[in-house]
Specification:
Layout lengths: L1 E7 L2 E7 L3 H7 L8 H8 L9 E7 L9 E6 L5 E2 L3 H13 L7 E6 L2 E10 L5 E7 L22 E8 L2 E9 L3 E6 L6 H12 L9 E9 L2 E8 L3 E3 L3 H13 L6 E6 L2 E7 L6 E6 L1 E7 L3
Parallel strand pairs: 2-3, 4-6, 11-12, 13-15
Antiparallel strand pairs: 1-2, 1-18, 3-4, 4-5, 6-7, 7-8, 8-17, 9-10, 10-11, 12-13, 13-14, 15-16, 16-17
The structure holds the ligand N[C@@H](CCC[C@H](N)C(=O)O)C(=O)O.
The ligand N[C@@H](CCC[C@H](N)C(=O)O)C(=O)O binds next to helix 3 and helix 5.
Function: Catalyzes the stereoinversion of LL-2,6-diaminopimelate (L,L-DAP) to meso-diaminopimelate (meso-DAP), a precursor of L-lysine and an essential component of the bacterial peptidoglycan.
Pathway: Amino-acid biosynthesis; L-lysine biosynthesis via DAP pathway; DL-2,6-diaminopimelate from LL-2,6-diaminopimelate: step 1/1
EC number: 5.1.1.7
């Protein structure tokens, strides 16, 4: 089975195209968890390829969909995630570079979300470099995140108090198709904070499906520093859906403007929470590292 190793701001993925032939037959109609074991094996950094996630690109099989492709993304522990911002940009790049669509625009479905994407810039050989992805509207209803905490007076979880082993913290909790718990801190988030509080909140009983945890320092009204403890992966160098959640949380709590650049450990992403349609749009790089073959 051929695969492509890719990354977005250092958030790295094993990407497998299952668009036709045996792979498409094996996975397109199969239950989501059919690829969980393969994902865990390939993501393993000692016994596999090593990655923060495993991505399958499938043909769209829903009749009523505007998408031509489906993305399924799995964490290194084999769990499926309905959203993954950095992987989506990698998928758009791979599809563009292999001539699977014409022009600069493509729509990819992940779970029930249609994500329109656009190639913003290409290298001299015509390969996609920067990609814009519209992740749609943020989700605030606690049951839909899902989060067991009750909404505050504003009807959302912008100032939720989460009690954990190390104390109590105020967080903004929302979904971008996957759950995020955003914690603002006064100083650059430390290793100790991320690796101690991250796993405590990931598995906190308030989150029945666990959560991703973002630690964020505001640097300016249009610039933030983010570190992420990811559900099913541990700390990663970047999280695209997390950056979208951070941009929304920062606006909701009056910390930044709607357009902001987020500085992640592995690179930068430009974010816009658009006023006109409430959509969150992320722009950033996608990079191919190497291709390989996996014996099945
Ligand atoms: N790094 C990703 C998110 C990957 C999925 C996440 N760990 C989850 O389980 O929700 C991104 O760039 O969005």
């Amino acid at each position: 089975m051929r695969f492509t190793k890719m990354h977005g701001c250092g958030n790295d993925y094993v990407v497998v195209e299952a668009l036709r032939g045996g792979l498409a037959e094996r996975y397109a109609a199969a239950p989501i968890d059919a690829a969980s074991g393969l994902a865990a094996s390939m993501c393993n950094r000692h016994y596999g390829v090593g990655a923060d996630g495993f991505v399958l690109i499938l043909p769209e099989t829903r009749d009523d969909s505007d998408a031509a492709f489906e993305m399924r993304m799995y964490n290194p522990d084999g769990s499926y995630s309905a959203m993954c911002g950095n992987a989506l940009r990698c998928v758009a790049k791979r599809l563009a570079d292999t001539g699977e669509f014409d022009g600069d625009a493509v729509v990819v479905r992940t779970a029930d979300t249609l994500v329109p994407m656009r190639i913003i810039s290409r290298d001299p050989a015509g390969r996609a470099e920067r990609i814009e992805a519209d992740l749609g509207e943020p989700i605030f209803a606690p049951d839909s995140i899902p989060c067991r905490l009750s909404a505050g007076p504003e009807g959302d979880l912008r100032s939720a108090v989460i009690e954990h082993a190390g104390g109590a913290r105020t967080a903004t909790v929302l979904s971008m198709g996957n759950p995020h718990c955003v914690l603002f801190v006064d100083e650059s988030p430390s290793d100790e904070l991320v690796t101690t509080v991250g796993p405590q909140i990931e598995t906190h009983p308030a989150f029945p499906q666990r959560t991703n945890v973002e630690f964020v320092q505001v640097l300016a009204p249009n610039r933030l520093r983010q570190r992420t403890w990811e559900r099913g992966a541990g700390e990663t160098l970047a999280c695209g859906s997390g950056a979208c959640a951070v941009a929304v949380a920062a606006v909701l709590t009056g910390r930044t403007e709607r357009a902001a650049t987020i500085q992640l450990s592995g690179g930068e992403l430009d974010l816009l929470w658009r006023e006109s349609d409430n959509h969150v749009v992320m722009t950033g790089p996608a990079v191919e590292v190497f291709t390989g073959e996996w014996s099945m």
